[in-house]
Amino acid sequence: MKLYYMPGACSLAPHIALREAGLPFDLEKVERSKKTESGADYLGINSKGAVPALGLDDGEVLTEGAVIQLYIADKAPAKKLAPAAGTMERYRLQEWLNYIASEVHKGIGQLFNPAMPEDFKEAVKKGLAAKQFAHLEKALAGRNYLLGEFSVADGYLFTVLNWTGMHKIDLSAFPNIVAYIKRVADRPAVKDAMKAEGLLKAA
Ligand SMILES: N[C@@H](CCC(=O)N[C@@H](CS)C(=O)NCC(=O)O)C(=O)O
After folding, report:
1. Contact 9 CB / ligand 1 (< 6 Å)
2. Residues 6 or more apart whose Cβ sits within 8 Å of residue 95
3. Which atom of ligand 1 is nearest to the CA of 109?
4. Nearest-atom index, ligand 1, CA of 63
5. Which of 19, 30, 101, 178 is most buried by its number of CB atoms within 10 A?
């Protein structure tokens, strides 16, 4: 498998999942120009232009981070990164993946838009605190991970919450979220993924 990624982007989530799963994979960086580091035209690989994309061994290309993460989890069932298909717990995981993708990822992600005026950015940040962060803070009370045990949803939520630092979003009113970010960041697979993307210095 080959994961197409941009350092620190949402593609970090499937990258973490691949390392948590212990599956063999290659990484290929996508440049802003939409050329990959080996010179391929990324739009020919994923016409949507966004990362992540996962090139499979049979030549298929899977896109959409939440789906890629489920695919990876299902390739390594012994690692229990996702509950078994058909169980209520699996729907709970999908509920979280959908929430992270549509509410948290796209909520914080819009702050990367350089055309967004500063006052609108402030309004977006206030809205995130009032709704999404308040919800996450409650959901994480008394639990280490979203489903209790670590799942691919945690790699995804960590990845997008990690952007709060870049956007100078103050999380001090959300101690459960702050502790959760640190807990996920301390996982060896997460550290390895971040080092491989140049986000953390190798020891
Ligand atoms: N719906 C996609 C969105 C992925 C996405 O937003 N990717 C961003 C990085 S976090 C990206 O590649 N943006 C550049 C672009 O779309 O050209 C998914 O969930 O995987």
Report:
1. yes
2. none
3. 10
4. 20
5. 30
